[in-house]
Amino acid sequence: MKRITVFCASSFGTEKIYEEQATALGKTLAEQNIELVYGGANVGLMGAVADGALSAGGKVIGVLPNFLRSKEIAHLGLTELILVESMHERKTKMNDLCDGVIALPGGFGTLEELFEMLTWAQLGLHKKPIAVLNVNGFYDSLMELLKTMTSKGLLKEVNREMLLVSDSIDDLLHQMRNYTPPIVGKWIEKDKT
Q1: How many other CB atoms sit within 10 Å of the CB of residue 71?
Q2: pLDDT band at residue 183, thresholds of 50, 70 and 90?
Q3: Which residue in 24, 66, 75, 130 has its CB near the most CB atoms, within 10 A?
């Protein structure tokens, strides 16, 4: 893995450990010569992960929609800042640039980005590892919801298992390096006419 995209909050949240783990993730990526791709902002967990990578000499690529740049949240110390026109273009660019994805704690935006990447993987549009760093049990409830989706027949077990989970950065990166995408496709098939 040469580049990992990190999705996370533009705020710090209520627990200091979120910021600490965001910074630690950035540093670990840099120390392992993995470039960071992220949303380009200098605020919240987004700023912390970027600063962590930069403090360890890492390369950091930010992808920021123009309308957010005008709000003066662009991180000015990045290796590269790519400006795009829309949130959708941002996700597409971040996907194009990376070899895998990690989600840190976040809100609606983080979940939307995470689930779009999972959906693309489920549809076979990419075969990249997708992971959540489950800081202090932040994603425990989400994991339970995914189990419910599976038990109710709305999500295949093989697709649920695409999401890698750990509370340890090193373990998560190990899982990502050893990820094998499922060979079972989504049930949608072309008509055989």
Answers
A1: 9
A2: confident
A3: 130
